[in-house]
UniProtKB/TrEMBL annotation:
Gene label: LOC103632817
Membrane topology: Multi-pass membrane protein
Higher taxonomy: Eukaryota, Viridiplantae, Streptophyta, Embryophyta, Tracheophyta
Record organism: Zea mays
Family that this chain belongs to: Belongs to the copper transporter (Ctr) (TC 1.A.56) family. SLC31A subfamily.
UniProt-recorded name of the protein: Copper transport protein
Keywords carried by this UniProt record: Copper, Copper transport, Ion transport, Membrane, Transmembrane, Transmembrane helix, Transport
Amino acid sequence: MMHMTFYWGKSATILFDGWRTSTWPDYLLSLAALLLAAAFYQYLEALRVRVKLVAGGGAKPAPSSIIPPPAGSDPRTPLLAPAFAAGAGRWPARLAVAAMFGVNSGLGYLLMLAVMSFNGGVFVAVVVGLALGYLAFRSSDGEDLVVVDNPCACA
């Protein structure tokens, strides 16, 4: 039976039927794996931000909807400008950043689904792992203030 409210206990099904815990060692090992996965999520996000900064995709100017296009230019250009502004030399870096974003988003959604097991220990392990990962990989240099893509926690 799937729980629909938070509960505490060593019996949990995490992500799929094959990942069931029924003993304390299984449960604690699963919590450790989730904590490490959450910290790894923060590491990947920090790495993606660094790659994006190195590739030249750092802080952006104000959106084109606020700054009017130059006189005589095609009014559709501001809509297409972000997609084609990088030029041919930056496409490999942009593809790498996009791939990293996809992997990180997938990991974020898996962590979210693990929390949706409604087991209190799983919730605590994921939140503590995210906090420790942020402390270890993202809190010292302030790069996350430079590149703000999406305020969503999974992005």
